[in-house]
Amino acid sequence: MIILGIETSCDDSAVALVKNGTEVIGSSISSQMHSSAGGVIPEKASRMHIEILPLLVDDLLKRFPDVKIDKLAVTTNPGLIPSLLVGVSFTYGFARAKGLEVIDINHLYSHVYANILEHPDIEFPHLSLLISGGHTQIIKVMSPIEMEVIGTTLDDACGEAFDKVARMFGLGYPGGPIVSKLALEGNEKAVNFPRPMIHSNDYNFSFSGIKTAVKRFIDSNKDVSKEDILASFEAAVAEVLVKKTIKAAKEYKLNTITLSGGAAANLRIREEFYKHENFKFYFPAISLCGDNAITVAGLAYHY
User: Fold this and answer.
1) Cβ within 8 Å of residue 86, ≥6 positions away
2) What does R_g of the chain's alpha carbons equal in angstroms?
3) Is 277 helix (H, G, I), strand (E, B) or coil?
4) Which are the contacts of 53, defined by CB distance < 8 A and separation ≥ 6?
5) What is the pLDDT of residue 37?
6) Architecture label for domain 125-284
7) pLDDT band at 34 (very low <50, low <70, confident <90, very high)
8) Is residue 83 packed enough to be buried (19+ CB in 10 Å), middle (13-18) or exposed (0-12)?
9) Could you tell me which residues come within 8 angstroms of residue 56 by beta carbon, excluding any fewer than 6 positions away?
10) Do 2-112+290-300 and 125-284 show the same overall fold?
């Protein structure tokens, strides 16, 4: 079963051919640059998808001319509506022309699937912490297509907090990789930033307050280096994410924990998990943390 996957949920245009859910035949991705804007502009992103997506598909199929596509898969939700519309419209048009079935894919499920794709023997159920620019969720994973959200953010997502703190220092977008790089040079104990909801009796998160705390500290403490501030901020966020996930794993009696989503590339968060030796941890390859079509096509195999 060979599936052509298409992903346009935000600003990355991605296509991939995957066989039987795990064997990657080929893939392509085109990432847009929004540094000057400080974030993604939905209308601009969708226009770029219109221009780039047909070229990516055409190039991929020319690279593998002997491949026979059995089905198509496309991300349908959640995401930026204008961007999703481009991907969905293109995919269904392509499918009608070729007489192929289309499988609609949940964007968050495809992120979680990155670990299953790389580790086909992973046990079910397990727990996944999904962290990205738009989402922060703790998910109980019963199978590749059966998932239950047991905790979520009540305001800003983890990745969004990284982006906005980066903007406070004029570091550009996306902010996560830049913050993490500079944090390596700082002292994480320099500033005792709050750990929002770390002791709440649920598995939800809140990152709006910590952004405010960072902004107030920057405005009133000019003698503390940005590296120290960023290291302290990253440490606070990582501690909350990991402690609440470990707490959920213990309550649900799950020994396997995965990390998924764009912010899963954060090395500090990964290191924080490894401090808990009684669990098995699976982290996706950095290339599969962000939006991509490989996991879209891979997940579609299970429907």
Assistant:
1) 8, 46, 49, 50, 53
2) 20
3) coil
4) 6, 8, 13, 15, 86, 87, 90
5) 57
6) 2-Layer Sandwich (3.30)
7) low
8) buried
9) 13, 14, 15, 28, 29, 30
10) yes
pTM above 0.85, yes or no: yes
Is residue 221 helix, strand or coil? coil
DSSP 224: S
Q: Say if residue 15's pLDDT is above 90.
A: yes
CA–CA separation, 292 and 117 (whole Å): 13
Taking the C-alpha atoms of residue 2 and residue 20, their distance in angstroms, rounded to an integer, is 6
Q: Which residues pair with 148 in a beta bridge?
A: 140
- Distance of alpha carbon 238 from alpha carbon 261, whole angstroms: 15
- pLDDT tens digit string along 49-79? 999 999 999 999 999 999 999 999 999 999 9
Cα–Cα dist 295/117, whole Å: 7
2-112+290-300 CATH: 3.30.420.40
| Structure-token pair, residue 289 | 């943390």
Residue boundaries of the structural domains of the chain = 2-112+290-300, 125-284
196-244: per-residue pLDDT in tens?
999 999 999 999 999 999 999 999 998 999 999 999 999 999 999 999 9
Instruction: Express each pLDDT in 118-133 by its tens digit.
Output: 998 999 999 999 998 8
